[in-house]
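Practice record 12: protein with zinc ion.
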Amino acid sequence: MDRNTIQKIFIGLFISACIFIGLHISNMTSIFGNLDIPKQELANNSSSSRMTYGRFLEYLELGWVKQVDLYDNSRNAIVLASSPELGNRPQSIRVEIPVGASQLIQKLKDYNINFDAHPIPRKSLLVTIATNLILPLIFIAGLIFFFQNSDNFSQNAGNSPMNLGKSPARFDQKPDTGISFNDIAGIDEAKAEFEEIVSFLKEPERYTLVGAKIPKGVLLVGPPGTGKTLLAKAIANEASVPFYSVAGSEFVEMFIGIGAARIRDLFKKASENTPCIVFIDEIDAVGRERGAGIGGGNDEREQTLNQLLTEMDGFKENKGVIVVGATNRVDILDAALLRPGRFDRQITVGLPDRLGRLGILKVHAKNKPLNEDISLVQIANRTPGFSGADLANLLNESAILATRYKKQTISKNEVNEAADRIIGGIAGSSMEDTKNKKLIAYHEVGHAIVGSLLENHDAVEKVTLIPRGGAKGLTWFAPEEDATLVSRSQLLARIITTLGGRVAEKVVFGDQEITTGASNDLQQVTSVARQMVTRYGMSSIGPIALEDENNDQIFLGGDNEAITDRIDNEVCKIVNHCEKVATKIILDNRVIIDFIVEQLLDVETLNGDEFRHLLRQYTLTPIKN
Ligand code: ADP
Ligand code: ZN
């Protein structure tokens, strides 16, 4: 039975119990009213007749009592009496007998009075038991069941109302994540830091002996898919300590206080299981800077964050809870989170470089039969900018393609096809031979030629007229090495090359024939040029950071509008200059371009070597920009 049906059954039981109680409410009044005198008897003598217990005793002594009927455990009596007061006619009189008047029966016997005790009727007793005992029992049993039920399932985060304040963390007492440090490649610095943390957890004495404080929190910072989760799983496994894993977004709730309650619950559980690791993925979801955002921020999130801060401060001396957070947006995290004593350590997990990619490919190629024609080195060269996840995906896609083509091993073909797919989207069918196709050919060759002639630009990897993703044609460049530091002339070369496509259209077909196809190129150009001005200080405005990573203006004081104007001016200057350079290159090399376009229209795809082979038939002068 799954949890939903169990809940439904319980709710059904609950409702029928309520209805049952409702139906018996009339019965219950008689029970709660502890009076069970037959109604008609009361009705008979409703008019006059009540007397006090004291008076009843006097009647007894005077011999005026004829008969006594005891009800309700001798707490009420209907007395048949006749007296001069009553006009010497026998009358039924009701008497309330005080608790503890135990000798009454003896007295009745002594005076030889005819008496009878009337027990509470059987049926009524049953109903009493039913309503007083069974129903509450059902109710309590149901509640217990409900709570237990939610307890059992609390590990996979309940939406049940009973679960709201419980931490949705998945918990592994004996983590066998199956991931060891050997499965992680290309992020060696991060790995080394983590290996140290494993030794904190395994032999804390070694550190405390020399007075070293064990870090409470480790923040993994880097783009998605670079192996942050993988690292966290690996330390849990290698240190063989319990592992709690939760995503920051799971603390984001609509109702104020729930996120905070979940955090409290998580840390409570963790502190009962030390030493252990608490992994919070996407920690930016809770750790976003307080008071940021429109409308004065979000109370619920602030409470949640405050709770997290409190909990991390809570364990003064680290007794073995290490919190590992992962984010790709460290810039938006609240500064309080990064203070010493919270996330003491920040580990940057970047995109892998060439050797890193090679390492990652080796890890993921382990269980895949590769054909001899595959060179992992070549794939690594071809895939700058790929994350670990992209590379894993690349090999997986290749394996799927190999299966589709009914091959026993994965060959170069499949890898190339998979790479093209991942980079550019799924290939469409080739275009009809129309004017459009020719225009696109000029556009792509424009990019390729300009890029090839510029000294500071990467080499052509592929030029194709096969539509892919949203693009009608594509030109790829493969950087030799990963560039984390890019020079001004490299950035300019990128802009010139990106403009090359549209400039070629313009030169060959004229102003009137320019198409909308270059809109993507133009966006890219504008973005690079703008960053040069506002972030890298590469314009005549000077070395001032005017915007942050999110293109939000940094307030400098003074006239903001004037600064915006100056930025726009500088961006235009850069783009105009680059367009001039691109136009000159296209005009100077028109013959070569015509020749290559002809070839490209024929074969539709040229790889880097084929392209360079064609170029070699001409003498070219490299251009410095
Ligand atoms: P993140 O948490 O940084 O977004 P993950 O750790 O979830 O990324 O990585 C997703 C997948 O990508 C992993 O399961 C693994 O298959 C692969 N991967 C990512 N980085 C690496 C790496 N450095 N070495 C090996 N595999 C990796
Ligand atoms: Zn283009």
